[in-house]
């Protein structure tokens, strides 16, 4: 059984494309192409399920058309519409300096000055000039690389120098 901590979210499936089972994938991380993955993990009815890819092609910088094995009709593809798409951490190329923003979802954020846990990263908003960590509970913390002091990938912890008074807001 695939566990939530074993994967990280990379996108969402959109509408079917054509009548042969292709579906559009809006993605925030193209890791599936960089490591030539054979499958993606879809959340269907609250369960994480691997879906093997027959083929895919990029439509734009953030969209790909994907054909999954055994999804051969427009109707079958339509049942997948809206599914969250995840990538297995074990297959990720997030080694060394290549840790992606999407790959750190689920990490604990720790204040470098006090050692106190600030929260767990639920999402990363990189759609604006200032990247933000969104913590579980909704608190937003600047994700500037200048503020990050340590990244412990094994312990899934990011230590950050928080601006004074930020947590009081």
Describe what this molecule looks like in 3D.
- This protein is mainly beta.
- Helices cover 5% and strands 46% of the residues.
- A six-stranded antiparallel β-barrel has the order 1-2-5-4-3-6. The chain has a six-stranded mixed beta sheet with strand order 10-9-8-7-12-11, with no helix packed on it.
- A hairpin with a 6-residue loop joins strand 8 and strand 9.
- It is elongated and about 55 Å long.
- The termini are far apart.
What topology emerges from the helices and strands here?
Blueprint: E1 7-17, E2 22-27, H1 31-34, E3 39-44, E4 47-60, E5 63-68, H2 74-78, E6 84-88, E7 108-111, E8 117-125, E9 132-135, E10 140-142, E11 148-152, E12 157-160
Parallel strand pairs: 7-12
Antiparallel strand pairs: 1-2, 1-6, 2-5, 3-4, 3-6, 4-5, 7-8, 8-9, 9-10, 11-12
The total of helices stands at 2
SS elements, strand count: 12
Kindly estimate the percentage of residues that lie in beta strands according to DSSP. over 45%
Enumerate the spans where pLDDT stays under 50 for 5 or more consecutive residues. Answer: none
Oligomer: single chain
Overall mean confidence score, pLDDT: 87
Please write the string of helix (H) and strand (E) elements: EEHEEEHEEEEEEE
Radius of gyration: 18 Å
- Helix fraction by DSSP (H/I, runs of at least 4): under 10%
Q: In this structure, how is the largest beta sheet organized?
A: 6 strands, antiparallel, barrel
Shape: elongated
Distance between the termini: 40 Å
Broad structural category: mainly beta
Strand order across the biggest sheet? Answer: 1-2-5-4-3-6
């Amino acid at each position: 059984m695939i566990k939530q901590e074993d994967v990280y979210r990379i996108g969402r499936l959109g509408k079917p494309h054509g009548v042969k089972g292709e579906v559009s994938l809006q993605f925030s991380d193209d890791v599936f192409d960089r490591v030539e993955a054979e499958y993606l993990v879809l959340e269907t009815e609250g369960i994480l399920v691997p879906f093997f890819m027959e083929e895919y092609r990029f439509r734009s910088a953030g969209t790909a058309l994907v054909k999954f094995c055994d999804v051969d009709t427009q109707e079958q593809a339509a049942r997948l519409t809206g599914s969250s798409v995840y990538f297995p951490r074990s297959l990720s190329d997030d080694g060394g300096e290549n840790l992606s923003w999407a790959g750190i979802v689920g990490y604990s954020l720790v204040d470098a000055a006090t050692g106190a846990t600030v929260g767990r990263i639920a999402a990363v908003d990189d759609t604006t000039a200032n990247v933000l960590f969104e913590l579980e509970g909704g608190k937003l913390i600047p994700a500037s690389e200048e503020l990050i002091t340590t990244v412990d990938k094994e312990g899934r912890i990011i230590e950050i120098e928080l601006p004074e008074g930020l947590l009081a807001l």
